[in-house]
Amino acid sequence: MSREFLHLLKTQARPLASKTASAFAPSNIALIKYWGKRDNALNLPLNDSLSISLGTHGSTTQIQISNTPDRYYLNGQAIPPETDFAKRLKQFLDLTRPKPEVGYDIHTTNNIPTAAGLASSASGFAALSLALNTLYQWDLPLEKLSILARLGSGSACRSLWDGFVHWHQGQNADGLDSHGHLLPIHWPEFRIGLHVISDQAKALSSRAAMKLTAQKPQQVRIWQTQVEEDLQDLTQALSSRDFSELGRIAERNALRLHELLEAADIHYSLPETLEARTRVQACRHQGIEVYFTQDAGPNLKLLFLAESTAAVKRHFPDLIVIQPMKE
Ligand code: PMV
C-alpha cells in the first residue's frame, strides 16, 4: 500500500496562512492507451501508456480550507454530495486530509471548449494534486504528485506536465513506481483536432468498462502484447519525429483497444464515429497526413501537423484545433 506515502503527506501538511491555493493542469490524450488495472484501489495499470498534454486546455482548481463539510463546484455549479463524482472527490481528498474536521471548498473550471466531449477527470485530479501541494507546502516533485493524482484517476498521472508523457506501469505492489515521466521531445508543429460527435456523458465509465473487459482474460492478454509492441514502435517514431509512423501506430492502438472493448460487448462508437473514421482514411488517400485516436466515447481526436491544418479543416469544418506545444 502507499499508506506510508499518504501518512507522510498527512503529517507533513503545513497549511499556508491564507488557507487557499490554486493550480492549473492540462488535459491529455493518450496515443498509447491505458486499459486494464492490476490493482483497482490504487489504479495500477496492466500496461504502460503515452500521452500528449493539451497545453493551455485543462482545469484550474482552487482549494480553500473551511470548517464546514466539503463543498465542490464545477464551472460555477455546485456538485451535489450524493453524486458519484462528489463521492469520488471526497474519497480522494480523504487520502491526505490531515484531520476529519478539516473541510474544503473546491472550485474547478475547465477551459476545454464546452461540448468538446472530453473527460476532464485527468486534468481535474492533476490540478487538485498540484493545489494541495501548494496549500500544504509539501514541496513534492512532479513525479510524486503524479502518484497522488493517479489515485484519483489513472490517466491524471500523465497530466502533471506539458508535452509527451510516458506512464510507466511499475512493478511494486505499493504503486510508488507507477507514475508519469516527461519525454524530452519538443514538437510545436503537432496538432490535435477534437471532432465532437456527442457531448453527452458516456453511459459506461472507463472504470466500469475496465471491469467488464477484465472478464475476458484471453483478449486482455492479446491487448497487452499489442500495446507493448505499439509503445515500442511509437516511442521510436517519436524520437525520429516520424509523424506518419506515429499517426499510424496511434490509430492502430485505438482500434486495438476498441476491438478489446467490442469483445466484451462494449460499443462506444456511434454511426457518425464510423463515418468520421472513414473520412480520415479518405483524407489520407488524398495525401493529407491525418490520423485519429478514440477513447471511451464516440468522439475522435485527430492527429496532424500544422502544415495540414487547412486541408484537414476542409474535411472537418467544425474541428476544434489545439496546439499542444508552444513554438
Ligand atoms: O483514467 P481513466 O480511468 O479515465 O481511464 C482512461 C482511459 C482512456 O482514456 C480510454 C485511455 C487513456 O489512456 O487515457
Bound molecules: (3R)-3-hydroxy-3-methyl-5-(phosphonooxy)pentanoic acid
* Mean pLDDT value: 95
Radius of gyration: 20 Å
Structural class: alpha+beta
Shape: globular
Number of E-type strands: 13
Kindly state the percentage of residues in helix: 25-40%
Sketch the topology as an H/E string, one letter per element. Answer: HEEEEEEHEHHEEEHHHHEEHE
Taking the sheet with the most strands, its summary is: 7 strands, mixed
Extract low-pLDDT stretches: none
Cα end-to-end separation = 42 Å
Report the β-strand fraction as a percent range: 15-25%
How many alpha or pi helices?
9
Structure characterization notes:
With 327 residues, this protein is α+β, with helices and mostly antiparallel strands. 37% of the residues lie in helices and 23% in strands. Strands 1, 4, 5, 6, 7, 8 and 9 form a 7-stranded mixed sheet that branches. A 4-stranded antiparallel sheet has the order 11-12-10-13. The chain starts with a helix and ends in a 5-residue tail after the last strand. The structure holds (3R)-3-hydroxy-3-methyl-5-(phosphonooxy)pentanoic acid.
